[in-house]
C-alpha cells in the first residue's frame, strides 16, 4: 500500500471518528435541552401557586368588591395551573412540553394532581382561613414536583459530564493511535 493511500485512509478514519464523537456530544446536549421547558413550566407553576396562596390569604379579609376581583384573578391562575399540569402530564406542543417520562416525576405529578383536584379553590363560595392553609400544602407538593424535575436534570447533566469526559479520553486515544500509525507506517518508511 502506498504512503499516500495509507495517509488518506488514516485521515478518513480520523474524520469519521471525530464526526461520530461530535455527533454523540450533540445528542447528549439535545437530551438535556429537551427537558428544559418542563423544568421551566414546573417552576412557573410554583410561582402561580405562591400567587394563589397570597390571593387566598387576601381573600380572607377582603370586602365584597375586592373579593370578586381576587376570585377572578384566582380563576385565571387556576386555569393556567390546570393547563400547565395537563401539559406536564400529557404534553403540550404550544408550551413545548413532553409527557413526563421519569418515574419519580410521574409519581410527584400524580400526587400534585390529586391534591389539585381535591383543592380547586374556585369551588369555595366563602373565603375561609382553610383555603390559605390548603393552598400552602399544595404549594409544598408543587415544590416536590419541581425538585423531582431538578433531580432528573441533575442526573442528566452528570451523565453528560461523564460522556464528555469519555469523549475527551476517546479523542486523546484516537489522536495517540493515529499519531503512532502515521509515524510508524508512513513517516518511518520515508
State the gist of this model.
This protein has 190 residues and is mostly helical. It has helices at 3-34, 36-61, 64-90, 103-119, 129-187.
How does the SSE layout of this entry go?
Blueprint (H helix, E strand, L loop, with lengths): L2 H32 L1 H26 L2 H27 L12 H17 L9 H59 L3
Helix pairs in contact: 1-5, 2-3, 2-5, 4-5
Figure out the total of helices. 5
Mean pLDDT: 79
Which H/E pattern describes the elements? HHHHH
Rg is: 27 Å
Strand runs, count: 0
Structural account:
The chain is mostly helical. 85% of the residues lie in helices and 0% in strands. The longest helix is centred in the last third of the chain and has 59 residues.
What tags apply to this protein structure?
190 residues; mainly alpha; 5 helices; 85% helix; 0% strand; rod-shaped
